[in-house]
Design goal:
- The structure is a single chain.
- The chain is mainly alpha-helical.
- It has a domain of 100 residues: Winged helix-like DNA-binding domain superfamily/Winged helix DNA-binding domain (Arc Repressor Mutant, subunit A, Orthogonal Bundle), CATH 1.10.10.
- The protein has a three-stranded antiparallel sheet with strand order 1-3-2.
- Helix 2 crosses helix 6.
Length: 159
């Protein structure tokens, strides 16, 4: 094991241990998959994080979410979510409005143009999923999901 990874990162020495090898493999594989999704997003002048926000808001359509709820649901935390949303508002993909229950809270909703853009992008994202599916067996997909959830989920020490 590790021959492909060592070749990929141009490392001639063996890994310190299996944990190091597995962790580096996870980094390389994750970056590889993410680049494919980012490439699909770039065709629509979107960043990965823009796509993520639009998907979150499509799932909450038509009610929308406040910024704090969007932040909790994002795949990657964004240090400047407000500016990210500003760009989507400027493009007419997201709208802001005041909450009826709490006038201090701003609710973000996806627009019809935002939904239309995601509908155009969806087939490109599905192509990446199909590419991924061809490389990993169904049994391994379930196993990989379980492993990943064990890494980032609230198991063991909760860190």
């Amino acid at each position: 094991m590790g021959h492909v990874l060592r070749y990929r990162i141009k490392q001639s020495s063996p890994f310190e241990d299996q944990a190091q090898e597995a962790m580096l493999n996870l980094f390389v594989a994750s970056a590889h998959v993410r680049r494919r999704v980012e490439s699909a997003c770039e065709e629509f002048d979107l960043q990965f994080s823009h796509h993520n926000v639009l998907r979150i808001l499509r799932g909450a359509h038509p009610e929308g979410h406040p910024r704090c709820e969007i932040a909790e649901r994002m795949l990657d935390s964004s240090p400047d979510l407000t500016r990210l949303i500003d760009k989507l508002v400027d493009r007419g993909l997201v709208e802001r409005s005041r909450s009826q229950e709490d006038r201090r809270m701003t609710i973000h909703t996806i627009t019809d143009d935002g939904i239309a853009l995601l509908n155009e992008l969806d087939p490109k994202i599905r192509e990446v999923q199909k590419w991924f599916d061809k490389r990993v067996s169904d049994r391994d997909l379930a196993h990989l999901s379980r492993i990943c959830e064990g890494i980032y989920g609230e198991y063991g020490d909760g860190e």
